[in-house]
Amino acid sequence: MNQTKGTDTKSYIESNRQRFIDELFDLLRIPSVSADSKFKADVRRAAEWVREKILEAGADSAELHETKGHPIVYGEKIVDPSLPTILIYGHYDVQPADPYELWDSPPFEPVVKDQKIFARGAADDKGQFYMHIKALEVLNNTTGLPCNVKMMIEGEEEVGSENLDIFVKNNKELLKADVIVVSDTSMISNEHPSVTVGLKGLSYLEVEVTGPNRDLHSGTYGGAVANPINTLCRMIASLQDENNRITIPGFYDKVAELTLEERKELAKAPFDEEAYKKELGVDGLAGEKGYTILEQLGIRPTLDVNGIWGGYTGEGAKTVLPSKAYAKISMRLVPDQDHHEITALFEKHFMSIAPEGVKVKVKPHHGGQPAVVPTDSPGFEAASRAFEEAWNKRPVPTRDGGSIPIVALFQKELGLDSILLGFGLNSDAIHSPNESYGIFNFIKGIETISLFHKHFGEVHGK
Ligand code: BES
Ligand code: MN
Ligand code: MN
Questions:
Q1: Cis peptide, bond prior to residue 184, ω within 30 of zero
Q2: Which residues contact 187 (CB under 8 A, 6 or more apart)?
Q3: Hey, whose CA ends up nearest to atom 14 of ligand 1?
Q4: What does the pLDDT look like over 83-130, one tens digit per residue?
Q5: Radius of gyration of the chain from Cα atoms?
């Protein structure tokens, strides 16, 4: 099955291509949903599977590290302590697949359609971290490893990485490396490869508005008693002004404004507004005034309601003035905002705008700090060279609106920047029904990652 050492990496990938895809399918069949305790055993099964594959790829060792939640898989291959070390991070957990009825094929029964693999986790992040395990196999069976490799694949990214946080703080020696590589982001397109250099932070919270002590007849009481849903809507609406700026006092105080030069650099990324709207089925956009769409997405903080509920939502009509209303709200943050501070500012402000007649509770969920990765590092140079060799183009640096909170923690605790070598596309529909990952991206990613190892070995220390 495996070819012998000496073959070049590209032909090794080509001749093992179908097996790589089949293996990924096995992983995609495991419903490792971290948020839902019903899948706890499956999450563990996925961890065991990943451990096996890291060993099969040629690692010296791979183990499960138990946590209060789902296990962390850690494996390594140290070829020579004098060589540079690459630490790979990824996550084997996935988002819940709901709503199931909107999937064209079952989320945990992967299928290929139009050269894309459809399954929950195909791009986020199973198809992406698995490229690293395959790159390890490829290098091991062809040229040999040009760098030492450490791999840390966690099972709680989609629920906030709390236990990984602790693991990193307690295992700094184990995780010692020269660079971190993460494939968990997207590129502009296959024609315009890009490397992410900015991720947003996150403050996520839930609010509860209580009016009367019980549900009331909306005719008998409506008009006199504060309706918590009406009130919540008004409160939420007031959080943004007519320019789509957030009205929470102090919210923008620590936002780092970019220089004109930095903004010009960002504007180099191609962006087609018409195609963007068309793809989303909207006839207009509604971002913060004074900033381009790429800036709104990449460098400006945002506030969005992620869910809102209360009252009667069943079939037909029921005339009721509800006792309670709820919403889940996310704020995406940019340097140098701090998610603890922003959560506190939100809480204070939201309580202060509550009108008479209702009580308000704010319950913070998880959060994370924003991160920016410098482009003048050996890691970024190695990434650029790897893309140049595999894609015949140097990648454009971009800032993403998504969050991978552990990246900021790696900077703080390990003093290491992460190279965000993501091969997904926005059209992969991560977190949505019909998530997919292009076979081209999967295979090309394995090639690019293998080249990254080679180039990092060459540029490191120069
Ligand atoms: N892989 C995503 C983050 C991402 C996606 C970054 C696309 C850039 C582009 C990650 O798995 C994710 O979903 N993160 C969460 C945050 C987490 C704390 C739940 C997010 O961004 O909502
Ligand atoms: Mn992810
Ligand atoms: Mn995700």
A1: no
A2: 193, 194, 395, 422, 423, 424, 425
A3: 403
A4: 999 999 999 999 999 999 999 999 999 999 999 999 999 999 999 999
A5: 24
CA atoms within 13 A on the CB side of 45: 12
- Residues 116/436, Cβ–Cβ less than 8 Å: yes
**Any idea what DSSP says for residue 303?**
E
| Block residue for tokens 């209060």 | 68
Give the mutation target among 304, 328, 404, 407 for probing the ligand 1 site: most ligand atoms within 8 A of CB: 404
SS3 call for 261: helix
By C-alpha distance, which of 438, 403, 442, 444 is closest to 420?
403
Q: Look at the domain 9-199+370-459 and name its fold.
A: Aminopeptidase (3.40.630)
Degrees (nearest 5) of the Cα angle 426, 430, 436? Answer: 85
Which CATH number does 201-255+303-366 carry?
3.30.70.360
Instruction: Compute the distance from residue 406 Cα to the ligand 2 centre, in Å.
Output: 11
Cβ distance 439 to 21 under 8 Å? yes
Token output for 97: 């697949």
Closest CA to 424 of 134, 194, 154: 194
431 alpha carbon – ligand 3 mean position (Å): 6
Angle at the Cα of 384 (from 383 to 386), degrees rounded to 5? 65
The residue ranges of every structural domain in the chain are 9-199+370-459, 201-255+303-366, 260-300
Statement: the pTM of the whole predicted model exceeds 0.90: yes
User: What is the biggest distance separating any 2 CA atoms in the chain, rounded to whole angstroms?
Assistant: 83
| 215-229 per-position pLDDT tens digit | 999 999 999 999 999
Token pair for 437: 């990952």
